[in-house]
Amino acid sequence: METSINATRLNAISTLISGLSILLFRNKLTHLFEISDNTPFWVVGGVITVFSLTMFVEVKKQRALALLWIIAQDLMFTLASIIVLIFRPFDISDKGYLLIGLFIIPIVFFIIYQTIGLARMDAKKGTNIKLMSFSRSIKADKSKVWETISDVGNYHEVAPNIDGSEIISGEKVGMVRACSHGKDSWTETCSLWEDEKEYSFEVDTTQADYPYPLKVLRGNWQVHEVTKDETRISMNFEFEYKRSFQNILIHPVMKHQFNKVCKELLDNWQNKLEGE
C-alpha cells in the first residue's frame, strides 16, 4: 500500500503544480499555442487542479478502488493526448503539440509507479500472497467467545458472504466443511485447531467448479484474552490470485468487499455475544 500511496502523493503534487501553472500562465500559453482565446486553459487548468485535490483526499483515505480509478483516469487522459498528437485535430502551433507531448511524460511515469504499488498492495514481502487482517475486542470471556466463533458448522449464520455451511467429515484438524453462496459452492479443510486459541481452514481452489479467481485461500481465526471479561477476535486471510493482472484489476474490488464482509461478520459476532 505504501508504494501506491507515495506514487499517488507525488502525482497529486505534480498535478496540482501543473494545474495552477496552466491557470497562472494561461496568457503565455495562449501565445505559444497560437490561439486567440485563453478559455481552454481556464477549463483544463481548473479540471486538473480539482483532480489533484481528489488525489490528496485519497492519499489520506487510502481506498484501493479510488486509487484504481485515479490510474484509469490518468490512463484515459494519456491515451486521449496521444490520439491528439497523432491526428492533430486542432489548429494550434507545433510548440503547442510539443507541450502536450511533454506534459504526458510524467503522467506515464505515475501510471507505471502507481500500478506497481497497486499490484503490491497487501502482499507479503517478496511474494504474491496477499494478507488481510481484522480484529475486534468483545466484552465477553474467552471461553464464551471461542465457543461462538468455533461453531464452524453454522458459520453461515454470521458470515454475510456464506449462505450455507456444513461439516461433511471429520472434526478439528482434517475436518472438511462444505460452503455455498448463491449458486457457487466449495469445500475447505481444517489445517489447524487448538481449543480456546485458534483454528485455520484452507479452501480447495483446485476444484473445476471453484468460482473465484484464487490459486490459494486460507483463513485463521484466533481469540486472545484482554481481561477476564474482554476478548479480542483476530482473523487473518492469505490468498493468491491465479493471474498477475488480477492483483491490479481484481484486488481493489476484492479488498473493498472483504473489508465490508469482515466488518459485518465481526458486528454479528459482537451483537450475538454482547447481546446475550
How would you describe this structure to a colleague?
Helix 1 packs antiparallel against helix 3 (39-61). A hairpin with a 3-residue loop joins strand 4 and strand 5 (198-203). This protein has helices at residues 2-24, 26-33, 39-61, 64-87, 94-120, 142-149, 246-249, 251-275, and strands at 130-138, 164-169, 176-181, 184-194, 198-203, 214-227, 230-241. The chain has a seven-stranded antiparallel beta sheet with strand order 1-7-6-5-4-3-2, with helices on one face. It is built from eight helices and seven strands. It starts with a helix and ends with a helix. The chain has two domains: 2-120, no CATH class; 130-275, START domain (Alpha-D-Glucose-1,6-Bisphosphate, Chain A, domain 4). 20% of the residues are buried. By secondary structure, it is of the alpha+beta class.
